[in-house]
Write a structure and sequence with these properties.
183 residues; alpha/beta; Rossmann fold; three-stranded antiparallel sheet; binds 1-O-pyrophosphono-5-O-phosphono-alpha-D-ribofuranose
């Protein structure tokens, strides 16, 4: 895989340090609240696994799989739920765990849809954000890193299903993705 990588953007140690720090903040903010971490499949699986081990509180996890309508390279903001939560979130303190926010359309739709179920609170954790691509404002309470508009993979993020298992966040060589604009 490494021959396809142009450069390492965020090394594994830096990711761990940041996720540990955010886990510490979540631990303070959610004391006595038994938060439900909602992992958005599939990219956020890796960060969820690390983050939950840095949260020193009773907490639970659940998963949603969503897909956005639209072309391959731009999301329309209309999200189809492929797999819904198992848990009833009414009255729960919910923390959405995402790997990356790009346009913000997915999360803004998801937020509205989860708020309609009347959780006690709803906040967002995102490991990465690409502010230059944002089309809708979205408040992220726990943010890892802002990244430039480059095609990033690794630590859960894929290109065509591959590279999720790279331990670092990396930028792919342009010839690997041949002009496909998303991420
Ligand atoms: C990524 C990411 C968000 C979405 C963000 O998922 O995990 O869900 O794109 O894009 P937006 O801010 O422009 O709406 P992706 O579709 O790559 O699926 P995956 O996590 O299964 O790889």
């Amino acid at each position: 895989m490494m021959p396809d990588v142009e450069k390492i953007l965020i090394p594994s140690e830096e990711i761990q340090q940041k996720v540990r720090e955010l886990g510490g903040r979540i631990t303070e903010d959610y004391r006595d609240k038994n938060p439900l971490l909602v992992c958005i499949l599939r990219g956020a699986v890796i960060v969820l696994g690390d983050l939950m081990r840095y949260i020193d509180l009773p907490c639970e996890i659940d998963f949603m799989d969503i897909s956005s309508y639209g072309t391959g390279t731009s999301s329309s903001g209309v999200v189809r739920i492929l797999k819904d939560l198992e848990e009833n979130i009414t009255g729960r303190h919910v923390l959405i765990v995402e790997d990356i926010i790009d346009t913000g359309l997915t999360l803004s739709y998801l937020k509205r849809s989860l708020l309609a179920r009347n959780p006690a609170s709803l906040e967002i954790f995102a490991l990465l954000s690409k502010p230059s691509r944002r089309r809708v404002e979205i408040e992220v309470k726990y943010l890892g890193f802002e990244v430039p508009d480059e095609f990033v993979v690794g630590y859960g993020l894929d290109y065509a299903g591959a590279y999720r298992n790279l331990p670092d966040i990396c930028v792919l060589k342009p010839e690997v993705f041949q002009g496909d604009g998303k991420r």
